[in-house]
Amino acid sequence: MAILVTGGAGYIGSHTVVELLEQNYQVVVVDNLYNSQIEVLDRIEEITGKKVKFYQIDILDKAAMTQVFAENEIEAVIHFASYKAVGESVIKPLMYYHNNIEGTVALLEVMNHAGVKDIVFSSSATVYGEDNPSPLKESMPTDTANNPYGYTKVVIEHLLQDLAKADSEWSVTLLRYFNPIGAHESGRIGENPNGIPNNLMPYITQVAIGKLPELSVFGQDYQTHDGTGVRDYIHVVDLAKGHIKALEKNKEQLGVKVYNLGTGIGFSVLDLVKAFQTVNHIEIPYRLAPRRPGDIDICFADASKAKEELNWQTEKTLEDMCRDSWNWQSQNPKGYCE
Ligand code: NAD
Ligand code: UD1
Questions:
Q1: What is the DSSP string of 122-189?
Q2: Can you tell me the distance from the alpha carbon of 188 to that of 335, in angstroms, rounded to the nearest whole number?
Q3: Residue 227 Cα, ligand 1 centroid: separation in angstroms?
Q4: If we measure between CA atoms, which residue out of 173, 165, 172 comes closest to residue 117?
Q5: Most exposed: 24, 126, 277, 280, by fewest CB within 10 Å?
Q6: Is the shortest distance between the CB of 84 and ligand 2 below 6 Å?
Q7: In the predicted structure, residue 338 carries a pLDDT above the cut 80
Q8: What is the pLDDT of residues 57-91, one digit of tens each?
Q9: Which residues are 231's β-sheet partners?
């Protein structure tokens, strides 16, 4: 029996595939390589000494996906495949609704047909919107996302809830990720954004490597300890391990389960910059810039539910995240294009 990982060549998917292989799961990866490179599969094999069965397929291609289920004994699916750039989703909403929502509907139809009713879904803290106060709890309302990307997550969460309500054989876990950063400690896999990064950590590592001149710190008048935005940064390897716990949970309990995957601790932009500088002995030039539209003051998890029900909690520190992000970037200055 194997776990099908959609989007398994991407940033979080590749780290999760490594953890699955290390825990002796068989893995089948489906990815159209829209936002990833084939090289990542060799790197996964290098780290684990194990081969991954790979299909370069779009999840919207139902015939090809049906074939994957026919050729493999799939017991469960971890569904990462999605577009994820918030700004782009505002400019190209149809592209996002089509790929993320229709892609998920197509996947669920194929799964239903194959009788595989076990799924772990990549949701996001973005579903909590702007109005809920941190620490964010799974029971808080989640219908106020403020951009099309966020809405695709809200809609897919609803879709999976409705599916499980209609058919009690479905086992669904919705994982709401906070801010994943870091990389595998080997430095062989990591985040490889296209173009100029939008997110803080890849921006910092590209400043550190000299690709970008300086960091802009967006906003200094937030209601936080130093005025800069506070987020719950989580090491991608801790996050990956949470998916194994979710698979186990799906086996023991049918229906829908929802968990935050975060550390429960908020750090500011300047906390992160300082930690990066101290751990890696590199100065990060930065300038104070206006707020970025759409950003909120503070966002961090109440991580207690995942601890109690999944027996999962983060193990890595902010320093580990800074060290591993830099280890990946410095070893792979051009990402996978070496
Ligand atoms: P990523 O872009 O690195 O990985 C997504 C992968 O899916 C890519 O390899 C891409 O080629 C593939 N893909 C996209 N559309 C596809 C399609 N139609 N068919 C087949 N493959 C397709 O992104 P990531 O950071 O690894 O994120 C994984 C998941 O986690 C996404 O669903 C994302 O929305 C969610 N998420 C990410 C973050 C984050 O900060 N990275 C935060 C919260 C939630
Ligand atoms: C962003 C997405 C969110 C997604 C999350 C996952 C937006 C508006 N939100 O969240 O939907 O779920 O990524 O990773 O894009 N910052 C700077 N300078 C920079 C970049 C960021 O100061 O060059 C600050 C931001 O203002 C914020 C913090 O760093 O306070 C983190 O930003 P980022 O990494 O982009 O994540 P989020 O905004 O939390």
A1: EEEGGGGTTTSPSSB-TTS------SHHHHHHHHHHHHHHHHHHH-TT-EEEEEEE-EEE---TTSSS
A2: 10
A3: 31
A4: 172
A5: 24
A6: no
A7: no
A8: 999 999 999 999 999 999 999 999 999 999 999 99
A9: 267, 299
Give mean pLDDT, residues 164-176: 98
Nearest-angstrom CA–CA distance, 168 and 117: 10
Q: Please tell me the distance from the alpha carbon of residue 167 to that of residue 156, in angstroms, as a whole number.
A: 16
Q: Is the CB of 199 under 6 A from ligand 2?
A: yes
Find the catalytic residue in 11, 149, 151, 233: 149
Cα–Cα distances in Å, from 312 out to 11, 167, 216?
Answer: 21, 28, 35
Active site residue 83: no
Contact 20, 248 (CB under 8 A): no
Ligand 2 atom at shortest distance from the alpha carbon of 269: 29
Q: Which atom of ligand 2 is nearest to the CA of 289?
A: 22
Q: How far is the CA of 65 from the centre of ligand 2 (A)?
A: 33
| 41 in contact with ligand 1, CB cutoff 6 A | no
Question: Using a 6 Å cutoff on CB, does residue 203 contact ligand 2?
Answer: yes
Q: Among 46, 3, 55, 5, which Cα is nearest to 26's?
A: 3
**304-312: average pLDDT:** 98
pTM for the whole thing?
A: 0.98
CB 259 within 8 A of CB 251: no
Q: What pLDDT band is residue 103 in, cutting at 50, 70 and 90?
A: very high
Secondary-structure percent of the chain, ordered helix, strand, coil, rounded to 5 = 40, 20, 40
Question: What's the pLDDT band for 145 if we cut at 50, 70, 90?
Answer: confident
The secondary element (H helix, E strand) that includes residue 53 is strand 53-55
Instruction: Answer whether 294 contacts ligand 2 (Cβ < 6 A).
Output: yes
